[in-house]
Design goal:
By secondary structure, the chain is an alpha+beta fold. It has seven helices and 17 strands. It has helices spanning 49-53, 76-89, 97-110, 186-190, 193-201, 247-259, 313-326; strands at residues 21-27, 30-31, 35-37, 56-58, 61-65, 71-74, 123-132, 145-154, 165-169, 206-208, 225-229, 235-238, 264-267, 279-284, 288-297, 300-303, 337-339. Strands 1, 2, 3, 4, 5, 6, 7, 8 and 17 form a nine-stranded antiparallel beta sheet that branches. Strands 9, 10, 11, 12, 13, 14, 15 and 16 form an eight-stranded mixed beta sheet that branches. 42% of the residues are buried.
C-alpha cells in the first residue's frame, strides 16, 4: 500500500480530510447496514436535535503501524462500550458494539494510505460520533440519528510532544456531581471552550478542574485524566463519578502493576496532596501521556521535581511501555491489540 505524501513528523493535532468515512442511519427504531462514503459533508434539517439541544456524543481512538508493518488499533471494544454508556445517558440509540468495532476496521482499511508509518511519531486518529438528526423543537430526544466515523492522521496533542506543560487550576467547573462528566457528550466540551481559550491567553496549556461540589479534589483536564507518581514510585490516579473513564488511564494502571511491578492507587486525590508528588502527567488517546511540569494555583506555583525539561523517569517508563504495546514492540495483554 502506497502511503500519502504527507510530512508525517510535522503533523499537529488537526483535522485533514481522508478518503472514506462510515455512515449509518437510525430510523423507525433500527440502524441500517451503514456504508463507507466519500462524502465528508452532512445535510441536516435546521431543527435537528443535535443543533437545538446538543444531542451528540463521540469517541476517540487510534490506529498504528507496528514495528513489523502491521496496522493495528488499541482496545476499540472499550470505545464501543463507553459510547454505549454515553448514548444511554443522552437518550440515544446504542450502535451495536460489534458493528462499532467492524466499522473501525472498515474505516482504517479504507484509509490505509493515511496510517502514518512506524517511527514517524504520528498516528491515525479515529473519531466515531452520533447525533440526533430529526427535527426536535420541544425538549425531547430526536427520533432519528446518524452514526459516523472518520479518521485523520495526527501528531502530538500538545505542541512539543514530550516536553512538560504548564496547567492552571480553573475556577469554572467541567462537570457537576450526578451530571454528564463520566460520558463523552459534546456538551461537556462546548462548555469548556471559554476556559481553554482563557487558559491559552494567560499562557497555560490546559485547565485542571476540581470537584464542583467542594473544590478540594482533583478531577481531570478538559481532554485527559491525571496520573501522579509519588516519591516512592506509586501510580496514583483520581477517582470520581464525574471523571471520564479514560481507556488510556485504565490501561496504564495495568501496565504499571503487571509490567512495571508498581503499586497503583485509584482513589479520590485531594488538591492539597499534589505538592508532595514527584511526577504528574495527563493521559488520554490524544494526549498519550503528556508530562505536567508545573501547576499554577492562582499565582502560586506547584513545581514537580521532574522539572520543565523532560518527562520524569517513572512517567517515561509508563510511556515507553504503553507505546511499546501499541506499536507492537512489547507483547500486549490478551485482546488489547486488534489487527486491521
Ligand atoms: N478525559 C476527557 C475529558 C477526555 O475527553 C478524554 C479523551 O478521550 C480522556 C479523559 C481520555 O480518555 P481516553 O484515554 O479513553 O482517550
Ligand atoms: C481523545 O483523546 O480522544 C479526546 O477525545 C480528547 C479530545 C480533547 C481530543
Amino acid at each position: 500500500m502506497e502511503k500519502k505524501n504527507i510530512d508525517w513528523s510535522n503533523l499537529g493535532f488537526a483535522y485533514q480530510v481522508t478518503d472514506k468515512r462510515f455512515v449509518s442511519n437510525y430510523k423507525n427504531g433500527a440502524w441500517d447496514e451503514g456504508v463507507l462514503t466519500e462524502d465528508a459533508t452532512i445535510t441536516l434539517t435546521e431543527c435537528a436535535g443535535v443543533l437545538q439541544y446538543a444531542q451528540t456524543c463521540f469517541e476517540g481512538l487510534k490506529a498504528y503501524t507496528t514495528e513489523d508493518g502491521r496496522t493495528v488499533c488499541f482496545r476499540p471494544d472499550l470505545n464501543a462500550s463507553r459510547m454505549k454508556d454515553s448514548c444511554e445517558r443522552l437518550e440515544m440509540p446504542v450502535f451495536p458494539e460489534d458493528k462499532f468495532v467492524e466499522a473501525v476496521k472498515a474505516v482504517v482499511r479504507a484509509n490505509e494510505a493515511y496510517v502514518p508509518p512506524y517511527g514517524s511519531g504520528a498516528t491515525l486518529y479515529i473519531r466515531p460520533y452520533m447525533f440526533g438528526s430529526s427535527a426536535v423543537i420541544g425538549v425531547k430526544p430526536a427520533e432519528e440519528y446518524q452514526f459516523r466515523m472518520f479518521c485523520t492522521p495526527v501528531g502530538p496533542y500538545f505542541k512539543g510532544g514530550a516536553k512538560p506543560i504548564t496547567i492552571r487550576v480553573c475556577d469554572y467547573d467541567r462537570a457537576a456531581p450526578h451530571g454528564t462528566g463520566h460520558i463523552k457528550a459534546g456538551l461537556n466540551y462546548a462548555m469548556s471552550l471559554y476556559q481553554i481559550v482563557d487558559a491559552h491567553e494567560q499562557g497555560f496549556d490546559e485547565n485542571m478542574y476540581l470537584d464542583a461540589a467542594t473544590r478540594t479534589y482533583v478531577e481531570e483536564t478538559g481532554g485527559a485524566n491525571f496520573i501522579f507518581i509519588t516519591k516512592d514510585g506509586t501510580l496514583v490516579t483520581p477517582k470520581s463519578d464525574s471523571i471520564l473513564p479514560s481507556i488510556t488511564r485504565r490501561s496504564l494502571m495495568v501496565v504499571a502493576e503487571k509490567y512495571l511491578g508498581m503499586k497503583v492507587e485509584h482513589r479520590p486525590v485531594r488538591f492539597d496532596e499534589i505538592k508532595d508528588f514527584a511526577e504528574c502527567g495527563l493521559c488520554g488517546t490524544a494526549a498519550v501521556i503528556s508530562p505536567v511540569g508545573k501547576i499554577n494555583d492562582h499565582g502560586k506555583e506547584i513545581c514537580f521535581p521532574s522539572g520543565m525539561d523532560e518527562m520524569g523517569p517513572v512517567t517515561k517508563k509508563l510511556y515507553d511501555t504503553l507505546t511499546g504495546i501499541q506499536m507492537g514492540r512489547i507483547e500486549a495483554p490478551e485482546g488489547w491489540i486488534v489487527e486491521i
